[in-house]
Design goal:
The structure is a homotrimer. By secondary structure, the first copy, chain A, is of the alpha/beta class. The first copy, chain A, has a domain of 79 residues: DsrEFH-like (Hypothetical Protein Ychn, Chain: A), CATH 3.40.1260. Chain A has six helices and five strands, in the order E-H-E-H-H-H-E-H-E-H-E. Chain A has a five-stranded parallel β-sheet. The longest helix of chain A has 16 residues. Chains in contact: A-B, A-C, B-C. At the A-B interface, helix 2, helix 5, helix 6 and strand 5 of A face helix 1, helix 3 and strand 5 of B.
Chain lengths: 137, 137, 137
């Protein structure tokens, strides 16, 4: 298998707008380079992908200082959900919710934003990652 | 080497119960898929593996909001240490403490929970990771 | 390509001294094992590499407890910038600033510490990562 065919798999754990943006930028970049991208949503990241919550304010990483936060917030970049949609337009991007985290929040498929493609367990995620990169964010 | 023979290596830095659980779930999933798993304990994660501290409350990631924290705490999942023991039962899981972090906390082998298999330096960890995935949590 | 020729690529997002030290230790270890190392600076990590800010106090991860923080601060290790310089001495270590984050902070090449080798976009970073490990810190 050519190395460029290997997927890059992102485990999204954090649900803050800065980390979700960093993740979405990686997804766009990888998709633009022709790499399949798997996204696996857990914990606070999954919570951010709930129906009606995507474009709400998800705060910043707690390490953001009082001088950094306004700069990051003011940055006129696209919303991470738009970046992910763009990644789906240019490439093969599959977004799955972690079944265990779904259970934790007590939510079902209908509670998720339509950008999410499905629900899967961690074994299925690891199988889809194959021997491509796995990045935890 | 078949891709399924490649190890997945987890660098555990964070010592909060949510991230340790996410890491342990990945370890169980990878072990169940027949992948060797290396775990390398640093900083706050190493502190959580000290004798007598494993099952104590290790708090949650600081990003957990007041509405999220009770949901994550209430989730009736297995403790991450039980998940790691389960991963060791089903597969090849090796847990090593980072020598540099041991030195930082001024502790020795006898201060660690028996689930930890040994102590190694970062070069040994990178050698054992080979060209398998490296995931920083 | 021999596996030992594959690069290990570190995406540095966090700008706290503990995570930057953990990243620098990985870089030194990988470089010592003969692995090319790519470092890609984003968000708070990029802010920490600004001219004149490198050796300032960058605080610790917000999860550091009141009992852990003094121990981590007191640890008599080399500064992460010295570790990175050492990694460059022993191996092939390339440190690039993320163009998007440069834009966010409104800074130019002259605002960065000389340890930074250049500025690149995320597509260039993913191309340089090839199918080697990608680690998000």
């Amino acid at each position: 298998m050519d190395e460029q065919d290997k997927p890059i798999s992102l485990v999204l754990f954090s649900g803050t707008d800065d980390k979700l943006t960093a993740a979405a930028v990686l997804a766009v970049g990888a998709a633009a380079m022709g790499r399949p991208v798997n996204v696996f949503l857990q914990y606070y990241a999954l919570d951010a992908f709930r129906n009606g919550k995507v474009t709400q304010d998800h705060s910043l990483s707690p390490e953001a200082s009082e001088s950094q936060a306004p700069i990051v917030r003011a940055h006129n970049s696209q919303h991470w959900s738009d970046l992910l949609r763009q990644a789906k337009d240019v490439g093969e991007v599959n977004i799955q919710a972690c079944a265990l985290s779904m259970d934790m929040f007590g939510i079902g498929r209908e509670d998720l934003d339509p950008i999410v493609d499905g629900i899967e367990g961690v074994a299925a995620f690891i199988a889809s990652a194959g021997d491509g990169q796995v990045v935890f964010i």
